[in-house]
What we know:
By secondary structure, this protein is of the alpha/beta class.
Amino acid sequence: MQGNKYSWVGFCQEFATKLSEFKDDRKTLIDKIIHAFQSINMPLPKLTENDIPEDIDPFTVVGLFNKGIADEKRIRIIRAFKEEFGINAPVPHAFEGVPRLNPQNSTIYAFGEDKQNTIQDLWTVFLVALKLVDLDRDENRDAFASAFDKALKHKNVSWNLTMGLYWVRPYWFVNLDSFNRSFLKDKDNTVSLVSDSINGLRQPPKGYDYLHICDLCKQVCESGAYSYTNLVELSEEAFIYAENSNKSNKNKIRWFTPLLTALKDLGGSATPAEARKKIIENEKLSEEDISAVTPKNQVNKFENDVAWARSYLVRSGYIDGHERGIWALTNKGMTEEIDDKKALKIIKRLNEKARNKPQIDVSPDKDIPIKRIWIYQTYLLQGRMKDDFDNGRFNPDELCIGDLSEYVDKEAIHERAFVVNGKEVDSTEDVDIAWIFCHEMQKEDIIYVLCKNRLVAKGIVESDYVYDEELKAGSRSVDWQQCDIAFASNLIPKETLQDVTDMRELTDELSEAFAKGTGKRMEPTGYERRTLPNERYSKEDFLNEVYMEDTAYDELKDILLDKKNIILQGAPGVGKTFCAKRLAYSIIGEKDPDRVKVIQFHQSYSYEDFVMGFRPKEKGFELREGVFYRFCKIAEKDSEHDYFFIIDEINRGNLSKIFGELFMLIECDKRGKNNKVELLYRNELFSVPENLYIIGMMNTADRSLAMLDYALRRRFSFFDLMPAFDSSKFKEYQVSLNNSKLDKLIDKVKELNEEIKDDESLGEGFCIGHSYFCNLENPVSDAKLKSIVNHDLIPLLKEYWFDEKSNVDHWANELRESIQ
Length: 820
């Protein structure tokens, strides 16, 4: 074994040998696995269609702790297996060179009728592999190759079989996952004989070919010509190679070494400002380097990136995170150096929980209080969870470190947990749970409780976090409604306590399952909001925020109410999306997120996303309803109120493909139940309700977009949104800022817009909008104005006049001089 970072090798090899003893007694093996997970109060991953697997293969067993999960959780599982199976090897705490299964796919075998045959054939490969390693001779190679080829014929068994073989005997079998294949294809990393054999593979090799690749790789390792000397080191190098190929990771590690160097130069500790100043001095950074801001939220990029680096160096033990306002090196930070390879390992380890996050829908307005929806997963409904149900409370805190409200951030909780519970504490996920439970969960939030593959309760949070000094525990009052119904979904996140508010498909599935389990009416959970009164929103509110003249607003509103479909078109920065939402609210009379839905079209958006279509599930496919279909059904049930469906970047999608047969139904005179068509995927007559209005947004300055489909164009009215520099409300806003440089810059932009209008290749649709100057803090800083010029306006001009450099240079100078 090669040092502590490869200590996992000894455990995996001994564990694999122990598993071979259960080849004819898999029922006992399964019982032991279940008991091990119960002992650490962790849910058993989904291993079958039913709750308890009736059989299991050895690679899947090893994969239970070799998935994309946090190392703390992995160590808990390993520790439980060590005790349950009587393993002598120590529990590893480092996992360099370990390939990991996708956490959404816990099994090597596939669910279905062929599962039993697959499991048996995987056992055969496993046993002959161990035998081959113990005694490498022709008959054992023949048996391995035959078993390997037979196993590969089963569904779901692919490159993951080589991963499983590597887990159980990592110095003998090479892992051919995507990282290793990419690494070995590069002729700089190995001999051409290996790279050529890997380059030719489009699917896993046959058994004899796989053994030949293993032999070649081991010979290369033993040659001493490369940085790796065995297959474990090769696997680690492959991961580093993949990470180094990732541009974003290169950017992330940019400030690790400069920050450590700066703190060392300053005697080991400094304020954040002093540290940044020293970095600027050491790295000889330009004014442009230190004043750049992120385009999305205008945060200073240099300061943000350095703070990001400091955060990761704190979490990895190089910087002390205890004293606020002081960045101080630890002994480790003073004595150890960090190269790019080590920095990438830090990112890999600390970002483990951020991997494999499910995507979410475009959410409603952030300024509207939305009822959040949580999933809490438990393995047993005994003890504290049962008491919580009986007594109307909720307490998922496992750390037992006192009043959680006293801790200012997660790091403080983690540090205290370390002190109280000792060095071996498995607290990363527990820290997240504690922080969410105390600081993020709010009154009227919804909690769904899952136990194994069943939905067992839904709760409404009724109180803030309260700590009981006598009981030495915190809790929240919750109105629990218990149920008991099977619930399995590949959308369920792996975390124990997770916010799933934006996962509309999952929250609707939960609501439907709960309704079936209790006999109550189903509610569209994904659209629920707090039972607080909505903020009133009037025409006057719209005019104060959108900088549109009174007459223009009346015209816009009348067009939408008359035509029911409108497209707001304009150049970047005229506030199309902002205007669309506020227009809807002003017609509704309040900020009601239930009645406004925002999505964005893109080139991959389809009819299946928009209306309905078949989606993959564990067994085949299922028909799922799209976002427009669901919103239409909600509006249809509430015919007394208006609903607004907003489509950002409407001209980026393939509109004929997305709307399908709904082309006709969205016309204003084809709305309602008297105008129905049969849907493509279901024998259902469908109509678009009369109280639903569609607002699209279109960027007129995007040269890459095709013209709108004519059939759709004649169903929409078009309204041009122009720069509002001369509107009365914007002028009032500008005067309130009282900044002469801003005034000169706006005057210069207005001059620029006149030239853009007169340019035959551009025109009015390319004028620069006023929103670049909205929401500025008073007083407006020079750095902010420079950022707008250098990072918003000039890049836009370079795109407009990409073949006229003299025009760009002229106006870039004019804009910069206006703020000098």
